[in-house]
Specification:
The chain is an alpha/beta fold. It has a single domain (3-75, 88-131), classed as 3-Layer(aba) Sandwich (Rossmann fold). It has helices at 13-22, 24-27, 36-45, 60-69, 89-102, 110-122, 126-133; strands at residues 3-8, 31-34, 50-52, 75-79, 106-107. A 5-stranded parallel sheet has the order 3-2-1-4-5, with helices on both faces. Strand 4 (75-79), helix 5 (89-102) and strand 5 form a beta-alpha-beta unit. The longest helix has 14 residues, at 89-102. The chain is globular. Keywords: Lyase. It comes from Cohnella xylanilytica. Its EC number is 4.2.3.3.
């Protein structure tokens, strides 16, 4: 079971809901996380269970980033709105940087999200299970 975060800016929420509907069968066996409204909208429109964090501007991106920093997130789908300035842009950049540091696959548009989810469906994310298996414990 993979841990997957679903995040969408306001003008991309409908696109995220449609994506979740289309790939509900692929996402269902995994543990899903989302920022506030995005998670609510997904649960209202699918049978998916989503652990919701705060909304992005209120710290939700940072909460997901904390899981990334601990290498406890396997995939992030973050539908960003490139045409709208975001007041919490530094948080977004920090989250994307953490994904780069930890080697976490991240999609920022639906085309890349579709490729990653199809890859997940094929079993191409099995390498993440090894990451979890050999992750050092608190004892080091």
């Amino acid at each position: 079971m993979m841990q997957i975060a679903l995040i969408a800016h306001d003008r991309k929420k409908d696109e995220m809901v449609n994506f979740a509907i289309a790939y509900e069968h692929v996402l269902k066996p995994h543990k899903l996380y989302a920022t506030g409204t995005t998670g609510t909208r997904i649960m209202e429109n699918t049978s998916l269970q989503v652990h919701r964090f705060m909304s992005g501007p209120l710290g939700g991106d940072q909460q997901i980033g904390a899981l990334v920093a601990q290498n406890e997130m396997d995939l992030i789908i973050f539908l960003r709105d490139p045409l709208m300035a975001q007041p919490h842009e530094p948080d977004i950049i920090a989250l994307l940087r953490l994904c780069d540091v930890q080697g976490i696959p991240v999609a920022t548009n639906v085309a890349t999200a579709e490729l990653l989810v199809k890859s997940l469906q094929r079993g191409d994310f099995a390498w993440r299970e090894l990451v979890h298996k050999y992750k050092p414990g608190i004892d080091g």
